[in-house]
Each structure stands twice: as structure tokens, then as C-alpha cells.
Design goal:
The protein folds into two domains: 194 residues, Isopropylmalate Dehydrogenase (3-Layer(aba) Sandwich), CATH 3.40.718.10; 130 residues, Isopropylmalate Dehydrogenase, CATH 3.40.718. The chain has eleven helices and twelve strands. Helix 6 links the parallel strand 8 and strand 9. Helix content is 40%, strand content 22%. The strands form two sheets. Strands 2-1-3-12-11-4-5-10-8-9 form a ten-stranded mixed beta sheet, sandwiched between helices. Strands 6-7 form a two-stranded antiparallel ribbon. It binds 1,4-dihydronicotinamide adenine dinucleotide (NAI) and magnesium ion (MG). 1,4-dihydronicotinamide adenine dinucleotide binds next to helix 4. The site of magnesium ion has 2 residues, from helix 8.
Amino acid sequence: MRTYKIAAIPADGIGPEVIDAGSEVLSVLAQRAGDVRFDMTWFDWGSAYYKKNGVMMPEDGLEQLKPFDAIYFGAVGAPDVPDHITLWGLRLPICQGFDQYANVRPTKIIPGVTSPLRNVGVGDLDWVIVRENSEGEYSGHGGRAHRGMPEEVGTEVAIFTRVGVTRIMRYAFKLAQSRPRKFLTVVTKSNAQRFGMVMWDEIAAEVAQEFPDVTWDKMLVDAMTVRMVKNPQSLDTIVATNLHADILSDLAGALAGSLGVAPTANIDPERRFPSMFEPIHGSAFDITGKGIANPVATFWTASQMLDHLGEHDASARLMRAVEKVCADGILTPDVGGNATTKEVTEAVCDAIRGDN
Ligand code: NAI
Ligand code: MG
């Protein structure tokens, strides 16, 4: 029996709804496989915890998470707590404290889900966005002076290091190499930003020499949004900075049909620490408690988690089940259906049980 210790942090809004669904699916996958166990430990960290304790997680939170094989995360954000507190209090300390420097965001059009792009269907949009997840624009470097005064100044400094850029570039080239098209697009803004971004381009060209079988090209981030919309077939693996990839992957999620289907993995490729798996979306106040949150993103990220743990059969089985259920039209309202979270979850569990 292979046992994996999973830390579940459902946190806020629809987070608990989708992580509950995900944990149910994981336990059915384990039953189906017979030789795998997922040992889930639940953490009540998040905005409710913050309102009680003044912090999003306990001071030794990272120490508590360290022994786990992976972290399964819902979403943070509450209407009555400022977003920079929820984000910097929980999700970012985990990403940064565990040096999860590769944020991997696959997007494709799932059968049964309609892209808002005309004439774009299954197979036309199949991307993986690799987001630098440890530095760049989200380094947390900056400050404010003369607060509240007319002469107030705020700085937000983007930090790019040779080590940081080289390791994400290598990760992205390797990932591109593992995909059938072996094609990578490197995104920057090196026309307007002359230092860090030009260094990105230079390091990309250096790392490219280690991967002679990978074809690659460069895009400026603004032009990239146009290419994603007008010519999605022309892209495959994409690497971009923390901020750029944050924005591009929301666009990617929307183009693939809904944020509700878009997953993300925060990976420590060196496996010194647990990696964290989550849906891209936030806590979605507008639908919290209605029972209609789309659990597909949370299932898909569980499949990324299984791949990371080396459980490739279970990962593939989960994705087959998700695709079957979506193709059968069992969809939540965000993707044009009228099924509930529970109905989609039950259907996926049934498909796993019936999968050969
Ligand atoms: P959001 O992702 O929560 O919601 C945007 C829109 O997409 C809403 O209309 C929502 O109903 C819909 N949506 C999102 N996930 C869905 C799902 N699974 N099924 C069906 N519909 C879904 O983004 P928003 O509204 O900008 O932010 C709400 C809160 O979430 C804020 O506090 C924000 O800071 C936080 N947030 C947290 C993230 C995280 O924990 N990683 C990521 C993004 C936002
Ligand atoms: Mg985002």
C-alpha cells in the first residue's frame, strides 16, 4: 500500500465546497486503485481563522505543513478582509516558504465545454503556462513613504535574479520537451522594460542551447494576449514572469470556457518541500454556499498532484472521468449546464468506478 499524506487547506468562500468534492474523488480513486491511500489532514486556516486569531495561519504553519507529501488548497479571500492580507497571510508564504518556484497551469478545452472563441474546439487550445512563482513583480519588495500626505510615494520593485530566471527557464524547456510539439513561447516585455526583461530574453537563449530539440519563440506580453485569442493553435508551452503569467493564465482559463475548470500546481521541482495544488479561481463570493461551484478545476489539480506523486495511472483515470462527465453534459452553470457541485462530483466518482 502506498500512502500519501495530504494537507487539505480549503480556506474561504467556495474553497471548502470544491476541496470537499476533491477529497471525495480522491478517496474513490484510492478505492478503485486498491493499493494507494490518501491520508488527509484538514487545516482550518483562512479568513475565519484570521478573524479569530489575527493571523491567517499559525506562526509555525509552514513547520506543520513540512512533513506532508502535498498540499491541496482551496481559495483565499473574504469580502471583509483586505485581499493583500489574505494572500500574503497564507498562499504566498506557502509558495515562497517552500520555494515552489514553478507554477504550472495547464489549459485545454474539455469535451462538452464551449470556448467563447468562435470555431475553437477540443484540440485547438492545449497549453501549459509556466509561471515564475518566487520572485519578479511579486517579490514583496517596495515600500511607502509619507503615508497619506500629498507627496506620498509607493514603490513596487520587480526582482529578477539569474538563478531564479535560469531555473524557471530550464523547467519550462524541460516541460516543453516532454510534450508532443516540443515548442516553447517565452513571454516578456523587453521593449519597455530594459533590464530584468532583457535578462530574461538572454537567459532564455542560453538555456535553449541545452534543449536543441525544443523549438522556441518570443512574445511581448501585450501581443501575446492577441495571439492567444486569434491564434490559439499556434501555442503550446508558455513561460512568463509572475505577474504576466498570472494575467495570461486567467485569460487562458476564460478562453477554455471558465475559470472554474482551470487548475494550477505550485511545484518545488527539487522536492525539498511539499508542493501545493489548487484551482486558479478565488473564493467566488457571488456563488458561495449555493452548491454550484464548478469542481472540475479542483479535480484537474488533483490529477496534477497525482502526477507529481508518481501516481500516473490514477491521474490519467481521474482526467478520463472528468472528460467523460463533461462530454456527457453534466456541467455546472458557469460552463452552461445546470448540475450542482454534488451532481458533477457523484458523476465523476461513478465514472472512476466504471473506468477500466
Ligand atoms: P474569483 O475567481 O473568486 O471569481 C471570479 C468569477 O468567476 C466569479 O463570478 C465567480 O463566481 C466565478 N468562478 C470562480 N470560480 C468558479 C467556480 N469554481 N465555479 C463557478 N464559477 C466560478 O475571483 P474574484 O471575484 O476576483 O475574487 C474573489 C476573492 O477571491 C477575492 O478576495 C480574491 O482576492 C480572491 N482570490 C483568491 C485566489 C486564490 O486563492 N488563489 C485567486 C483569485 C482571487
Ligand atoms: Mg490570478
